[in-house]
Design a protein that fits this description.
The complex is a heterodimer of chains A (246) and B (204). Chain A is mainly β and 246 residues long. Chain A is built from two helices and twelve strands, in the order E-H-E-E-E-E-E-E-E-E-H-E-E-E. Chain A has a domain of 159 residues: Aromatic compound dioxygenase (Protocatechuate 3,4-Dioxygenase, subunit A). In chain A, the strands form three sheets. A five-stranded mixed beta sheet of chain A has the order 4-3-8-9-10, with no helix packed on it. In chain A, strands 2, 5, 11 and 12 form a four-stranded mixed beta sheet that branches. In chain A, strands 6-7 form a two-stranded antiparallel ribbon. The radius of gyration of chain A is 19 Å and the shape is globular. Chain B has one domain: Protocatechuate 3,4-Dioxygenase, subunit A. The longest helix of chain B has 6 residues. Classes of the chains: A mainly beta (246), B mainly beta (204). At the A-B interface, strand 1, helix 1, strand 3, strand 4 and strand 8 of A face helix 1, strand 5, strand 6, strand 7 and strand 8 of B. Strand 1 of chain A pairs parallel with strand 12 of chain B, so a sheet runs across the interface.
Chain lengths: 246, 204
């Protein structure tokens, strides 16, 4: 409970110029799915400053090992074996402990295991594509998986998604809730992607590109990529008025 | 010259895409058996205090078509108005109630359903009571950053009129977009991303 004080304050205002705007017509699906009226600014109440937290007892031992968690009869999935690791911290640089991360991705050929997926690349019988984990006391996490492949998608006539892993992140307040995508260093498709291009600045896009991390590879086994995640920070509570209704 | 303010920037959001179910509700996507427990399916158990309610709705796009790939999460207080969160310092929450639920839109109709309880009153930061409400968070393909809104209860006429959030909405004609319709213990809360009935979304 050493971070109890920090975990009570309101969150820093979200920098809406750093994130993608809602309406981004080169990503066509956003056109009819973007609110057109101004958002109502709401200084956080208890309803936004609190949020669900999850226990290690709720997740399984192989949940962060996508190489093994769908393996059939001990056979391994096809593709580049990688470790994805990093730290979840807030805008102050403080580690976010106990943060639930959920991830999902395509297989090495760029194919998702989903009822509605129709891409012609084959499913891998030994790869599911979902995982989850909870950060430790330093905010650190790691997964083991297969590097996903790029794939075409119907937006422009010849648009391709760069290789990516989707991340869903819970902090300790519901206002921190975030879904994002991690890209891989050196992928030339990143800068051609209409979904990446929804983000206004190159600097912000670079925050989504995980560098190759030779220091955390396993020789003769797996490469490693490092992906740190920053959630909203909390304002100090030391001079706040005492909450009513206690 | 000054010292630098060494804050980090929040990681930019990206769309959840069409296959969000694989990671968040894998059984729903046909990916069975990977996770022993799917999170957010059950919000309460039989011992939870409070009035049982069902909340249903559909997320509609700007042409009035149901969005079939949305994922909806809710977050709410227990019957006494307390949150099941380490940040809750006002009292002990009902241990039989998690307060957090997650439901994908059904693949044909787009409908989401939550079995929960009616939440109690939670104070605003200045101490005024907020009317009972459920926080909603919506992601889908085409939504670049998750949308926050609230559902309020139609029978709470006086509380809604005094609610510090609802009363801040400049165009009063938009207030009903945040109020569910009721049929016994069933509430309906449809969400419209655009159009005349565009739901009020929050920058929280």
């Amino acid at each position: 409970m050493s971070n109890e004080k920090r975990a009570q304050g309101a969150f820093f205002q979200r920098d809406r110029n750093w994130h993608a705007p809602a309406y981004t017509p080169t990503y066509k699906t956003s056109v009819l799915r973007s609110p057109q009226k101004a958002l109502l600014s709401l200084d956080n109440s208890i309803s936004e400053m609190t949020g669900p937290v999850f226990g290690h007892n709720q997740i399984g031992e192989l949940d962060n090992d996508l190489i093994l968690n769908f393996s059939q009869n001990g056979e391994l999935p096809v593709g580049e074996r990688i470790i994805v690791h990093g730290r979840v911290m807030d805008e102050r640089g403080l580690p976010v402990k106990g943060a639930l991360l959920e991830l999902w991705q395509a297989n090495a050929g760029g194919r998702y295991r989903h009822k509605k997926e129709t891409y012609l690349a084959p499913l891998d019988p030994n790869f599911g594509g979902c995982g989850r984990t909870i950060t430790d006391d330093n905010g650190d996490y790691h997964f083991r998986t297969i590097k996903p492949g790029p794939y075409p998608w119907p937006n422009g006539v010849n648009d391709w998604r760069p290789a990516h892993i989707h991340f869903s992140v819970f902090g300790d307040g519901f206002a921190q809730r975030l879904i994002t995508q991690m890209y891989f260093e050196g992928d030339p498709l990143i800068w051609k992607c209409p979904i990446v291009q929804t983000i206004p600045s190159e600097e912000a896009v670079r925050q989504l590109i995980a560098p190759l991390d030779m220091g955390n590879t396993i020789p003769m086994d797996s490469l490693a990529y490092k992906f740190d995640i920053v959630l909203r920070g909390r304002r100090s509570t030391m001079f706040d008025n005492r909450r009513e209704g206690n | 010259m000054t010292q630098p303010l060494n804050y980090f920037k929040e990681t930019p959001s990206q769309t959840a895409g069409p296959y969000v179910h694989i990671g968040c509700t894998p059984n729903f996507s046909g990916l069975n058996g990977v996770f022993s427990e799917e999170l957010g399916v059950k919000i309460l158990n039989d011992q939870a205090e409070g009035t049982r309610i069902t909340v249903r709705g559909v997320v509609y796009d700007g042409k009035g078509a149901p969005i079939k790939d949305a994922l909806v999460e809710i977050w709410q207080a227990d019957a006494k108005g307390l949150y099941n969160s380490p940040s809750e310092i006002r009292g002990a929450v009902d241990p039989n109630f998690s307060g957090w639920g997650r439901c994908p839109g059904e693949m044909e109709s787009g409908e989401f359903v939550f079995e929960t309880i009616k939440p109690g009153v939670v104070p605003f930061k200045d101490g005024r009571p907020m009317a009972p409400h459920i926080t909603f968070w919506i992601v889908a393909r085409g939504i670049n950053i998750g949308l926050h809104t609230r559902m309020y209860f139609p029978e709470e006429i006086d509380a809604n009129a005094a609610d510090p959030i609802l009363s801040r909405i400049e165009h009063k004609s938009r207030v009903p977009t945040l109020i569910a319709t009721q049929n016994g213990s069933e509430y309906r809360f449809d969400i419209h991303l655009q159009g005349d009935n565009e739901t009020v979304f929050f920058d929280i």
